[in-house]
Amino acid sequence: MKTRRVYVSSDLGPGALGLLKESGCEVVVHPDRDRPPSRSELLDGVAGASGIVTLLSEKMDGELFDHAGPQLAVVSAVSVGTDNIDIEAAARRGITVTNTPDVLTAATADLAMGLILAVNRRIVEADAFLRRRESWSWGPRFFLGRDLEGEVLGIVGYGRIGAALARRARAFGMKIIAAGTGPARDGVERLPLQEMLSVADVVSLHVPLTAETRHLIGPREFASMKPRAVVINTARGPLIDEGALVQALDSGRLRGAGLDVYEQEPKIHPGLLVRDNVVLTPHIGSAGEQTRQRMAMLAAENTVAVLTGGDPKTPVACPTAQTEPISAATVLDKHAAEKGKV
Fold first, then answer.
1. CATH number of domain containing 69
2. Catalytic residue among 121, 253, 265, 275
3. In what residue span(s) does the D-isomer specific 2-hydroxyacid dehydrogenase NAD-binding domain sit (predicted)?
4. pLDDT tens-digit readout, 78-127
5. In what order do the strands lie in the sheet with 202-205?
6. DSSP state of 28
């Protein structure tokens, strides 16, 4: 039997790579650990591959699938979101697409809670102040931040990660509400998005990136927010219109923001880089050691399952064709009711 070739776009560690090799696959790994493959390197690397294990930074489209060849059977994303993969193009070619849900839920919720704390209590700003060796003395109004107890957390996308964040926020005494029009879940009141934005002290985004959710939070939404609210995004950068976010921050409309993802990632809007009330992290929502290991192993297990004629643990369903645009409210309700993909 001909050896199946699997192209892996980044070193996933010995566990996941060992699993692929033990299954009898020829494993080809992009050699540079410090950067993702360029488009030309990616096209060269996937040629002849039966499986591809990919990160969010690589565009998986029809051109790439055709370049790989008709033997390509599976594309395994080491992520929950698959917005970098043309799912319909894969389905037309009979290619299975998989992702890694669940295993990163806790880690991402942890980071979201950390950003909420960091922005409201000005932790990063205070750390930078001390590192500049500024002269200081304790005072009753020195580095005042916002107490979290009694504040309202508005969750946009009450799926796996949104629910995990809610559990953490309750431990800090926060009240939880969520965007949507469906029935309450876990005792969490659901409100239409604009209404939710008008009463939340902190707004945290946990929806997938789709055509319908791109710029879900823009000028109108920022204008609807409670004065001095805080915005947190650990989902996908393009959910927020960053230009509108900078304007809202410059005007004093918002207290601050905590961002792990960016509209033009890895580029960051320069207006965000200069603000002390914005906490920025480089897409590390799932960057717990055990979490990343579990993600890599699940991607490898999915790949092996498909290539050996089995069923992958976490396949991604091909979206059905839409005849009419989907409203943001519908996307939020569908997200909460189904898989909570982020």
1. 3.40.50.720
2. 265
3. 113-285
4. 999 899 999 999 999 999 999 999 999 999 999 999 999 999 999 999 99
5. 189-191, 175-179, 152-156, 202-205, 229-233, 254-259, 278-280
6. E
Task: Tally the domains of the chain.
Answer: 2
**Chain center to CA of 79:** 8
Give the pLDDT confidence of 52-73 residue by residue, as tens digits: 999 998 999 999 999 999 999 9
Percent with pLDDT over 90 in the chain: 87
Residue carrying the six token digits 């905590």 = 258
Same domain, 132 and 188: yes
141 in active site: no
* Distance (Å, whole) CA 10 – CA 63: 21
C-alpha angle 190-191-197 in degrees, rounded to nearest 5? 125
Question: 122, 190, 236, 255: which one is catalytic?
Answer: 236
Q: Any catalytic annotation for residue 206?
A: no
Residue-range definition of the domain harbouring residue 40: 5-103+288-311
Give domain status of residue 81, yes or no. Answer: yes
Do 204 and 156 contact (CB within 8 A), yes or no? yes
Q: Which of 283, 292, 294, 335 is catalytic?
A: 283
